[in-house]
Amino acid sequence: MKRAIASMGCGALFAVGLALSGMTLPAKVTGFLDFTDGWDPSLGFVMGGALAVLLVARVLTPPKPLLAPAYGTFRVDGIDARLVGGAALFGLGWGLSGYCPGPAVVSLGSGAQAAWFFVPAMLGGILLAGVFERRFRGAAQPADAEACG
């Protein structure tokens, strides 16, 4: 229960930060991404502030988590076509819509009409990517791939 409450608190803090920084406003985001006409650098300062908080948090992080047995780890496989293609699609969607997944979900709470179209489309894309992943990656792997980890 403590982990669920902590997760809820972190999510709420993240949502408030997104709203206060203007990340939930597509016009603000596209203004940051458009270098040709009235570029708005303010979201760069938001990102810089987030990095500063991350650096302080990394220095102050205790050796063992308070509410979990260990910190999670991530497997790094390097840069491949899948990563580059996914990043390009993400960036294209972000630039065209002005929404990133987190801010889009937060925007649902504010009643932003565009978010009510974007979020279902995003979820559909996630489901479709899962279908392609299973179909194409599953066919390309040897039968004993699960045993390999």
Structure write-up:
The protein is an all-alpha fold and 149 residues long. The protein has one domain (2-143). Helices cover 68% and strands 0% of the residues. It has six helices and no strands. It has helices at 2-21, 26-33, 42-60, 81-97, 101-110, 113-140. Helix 2 (26-33) crosses helix 4 and helix 5 runs antiparallel to helix 6 (113-140). The longest helix is centred in the C-terminal third of the chain and has 28 residues, at 113-140. It is globular, with a radius of gyration of 19 Å.
Shape: globular
Tell me the count of domains. Answer: 1
Radius of gyration: 19 Å
H/E element string? Answer: HHHHHH
Query: Residue-averaged pLDDT, rounded?
Result: 84
Total of helices: 6
Q: What is the subunit arrangement here?
A: single chain
Low-confidence stretches: 142-149
List the helices and strands and how they pair.
Elements: H1 2-21, H2 26-33, H3 42-60, H4 81-97, H5 101-110, H6 113-140
Helix pairs in contact: 2-4, 5-6
How would you concisely characterize the structure shown here?
This protein has helices at residues 2-21, 26-33, 42-60, 81-97, 101-110, 113-140.
Which descriptors would you attach to this protein?
mainly alpha; single chain; 6 helices; 149 residues
